[in-house]
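re: that chain from earlier
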Amino acid sequence: MRAQQTFTILSYNIENAFDTIHDEGKNDYEYCDGGERKWNQNKLFQKLKGISKVIAAADEKRPVDLIGLCEVENDTVMQYLTRCTSLKNLGYRYIMTNSQDGRGIDVALLYSPFTFHPIENESIRPNSKKEKTRDILHVAGIIAGGDTLDVYVVHLPSKRGGAEAQKLSMGICQQLKAHTDSVRTKRQRPNLLIMGDFNAENNSQQLKLLTRSHHLIDRTAKLQPGTYKYQGEWSTIDHLLTHTTTLSHQQTRILTLPFLLEHDATNGGDKPYRTYLGTVYQGGISDHLPVVGTFQLKKFATK
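^ sequence. v structure.
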């Protein structure tokens, strides 16, 4: 690898990427064969083909280095994505969680083994004894120049849970902060990257807790139009937070490719072209828009 190059990151909630087989102990019946959504292999592969198209379009010059995905059911889905779509020619590998989420959805990190070499990974399980939700995925890997990049993929609880969900979300962010604090103390040149669906805007208590600590910067603050549209209003609830010494930030943007959007007949303008609206199949890829961050790798002297 060259000592200095562009490094691209994609963060994307891919809206209920389920296979069609029941996972024991999980409430995934609506996406199983014969379920109320009438989900099937053809619809799944159409969705995965669309996701691979997004990844390819995120950087037209070279393959994206890291892709954080939210709402992935299991290894089966990730194997289909990496082996049965156009991504199979790029050699992507993945690491994912196996959390206690009731519906069985998890987070995953897709990475190019040519530019990111994992050295350790772990699932950070929320401390809550009442609610079962997604683990945080932490992967540490070596990037060009020999430095370590610590990557976290996050999918915080939905706001629909009210005060209890807010409390749970804050508790998870406190765990995340403690973990990143620990990582910073042991790295000579710390490089932290936190991405995913926070279900919270940049001015929320969750984001303030993280960005006030050790100078994490929210690269998605003030980006337009937003990553999610609810009742006609756009908001950015998918975030990319960084604290880097080796990576120089170039640009962060929300992908608004034409095939990711459709006309919003109710509220005007556009909205994400989603897979389902309620239980009605729409045929799109996701109800979220992806976030892409571009960085330049600085050249350091050999350790």
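Helices lie at 41-58, 75-83, 162-186, 205-212.
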